[in-house]
Amino acid sequence: MNEKTNDSKIALVTGGNRGIGKEICRQLAQKGLHVLLGSRSQSQGEQAAAELAESGLTVDVVTLDVSDKDSIAQAIASMVKSHGGLDVLVNNAGVFLDNEAEAHGSVLHIQGKTLEDTFRTNLYGPLHLIQACVPLMQARGYGRIVNLSSGMGQLAHMGGGSTAYRLSKTALNALTRIVDAELSSPHLKVNAVCPGWVKTDMGGDNATRDVAQGADTAVWLATLAEDGPSGQFFRDRQVLDW
Ligand code: NAP
After folding, report:
1. Could you tell me if the CB of 17 is within 6 A of ligand 1?
2. Which residue in 75, 101, 106, 191 has a CA-CA distance of 20 to 30 Å to 223?
3. Could you tell me where the DSSP H helices lie in the chain?
4. 48-81-32 Cα angle (round to 5)
5. Ligand 1 and 126: CB distance under 6 A
6. Closest C-alpha to ligand 1, atom 29
7. In whole angstroms, what is the distance from residue 170 CA to residue 224 CA?
8. Cα 190 to Cα 145: distance, rounded to the nearest angstrom
9. pLDDT in tens, 111-165
10. What is the DSSP letter of 65?
């Protein structure tokens, strides 16, 4: 059967050096998964790993810039060499660039560069990682993919402003559905999650949730049982409208 124990599972978390990603690494390691903490800065990744080690948790650091296809190819090759494959992919790395853009990313002012830079990390990164990782998961007959999305990408409750971020997360939600439609095995699952408004560099100090709350649903989705859902969008372990 394809169900494995946690301690035999390999999980890659992008943007694991700080914020929600670091907390997802912590919670997955606490559950016994072998965590690969992706970080575009090797030294910041090692700093995060050292912090987790203080709580008795061991994670490996993988240098990974999700906006760079060569970096993805190198990270995957090194992961296959050292660990033989992958069971769990958490596409957590993300940027919110609209605050630095004209009129806070108003749709009437948004420029190509803000859109392109945002999409390179928030959409193409997850897409390229999924392309690289799904064959590895298919080979193992097991896979869990979690895409860190946002209520700001929810069509059902779409607002104005922050156009680049909103579009990138709506597209990430669509990517989640497309991948789910193409995965032909019940042993592979892909879901999107909104972590809520979380106190991180991105969320800011006024956010209402701590990182432990922000990471909870992503970790749940990363460790779903065989009869768990796929192709859905969650917050607080509850299904959201797209
Ligand atoms: P954060 O504190 O700003 O951390 C972002 C992480 O992504 C950092 O580790 C950063 O690495 C990494 N990253 C950015 N660009 C990258 C790239 N090209 N390659 C690899 N890593 C990259 O953000 P967060 O609040 O933890 O957010 C995590 C995810 O949750 C994001 O996808 C975000 O959109 C989503 N989210 C957050 C909130 C919230 O309230 N915080 C709400 C909804 C959704 P560096 O340190 O190298 O920059």
Report:
1. yes
2. 75
3. 19-30, 42-54, 69-83, 112-119, 125-140, 163-182, 211-222
4. 45
5. no
6. 92
7. 23
8. 5
9. 999 999 999 999 999 999 999 999 999 999 999 999 999 999 999 999 999 999 9
10. -
For ligand 1, whether the C-beta of 150 sits within 6 Å is yes
Q: In the chain, what percentage of residues exceed pLDDT 90? A: 93
Instruction: Provide the pLDDT for residue 4.
Output: 57
Q: How far apart are CA 199 and CA 201, in angstroms?
A: 7
Answer yes or no: is the C-beta of 87 below 6 A from any ligand 1 atom: no
For residue 193, what are the contacts with CB-CB under 8 A and spacing of at least 6? Answer: 146, 147, 148, 149, 217, 218, 221, 233, 234, 235
Contact status, residue 188 vs residue 133, Cβ threshold 8 Å: no
Contact between 5 and 87 under an 8 Å Cβ cutoff? The reply is no
Tens of pLDDT, residue by residue over 27-76, are: 999 999 999 999 999 999 999 999 999 999 999 999 999 999 999 999 99
* Ligand 1 closest atom vs CA 93: 7
CA-to-CA distance for 70 and 143, rounded, in angstroms? Answer: 23
CA 180, CA 173: separation in Å to the nearest integer? 11
- Pocket-testing residue among 61, 76, 117, 202, ligand 1, by greatest number of atoms within 8 A of Cβ: 202
For tokens 């372990």, the residue is 237
- Model confidence, pTM: 0.97
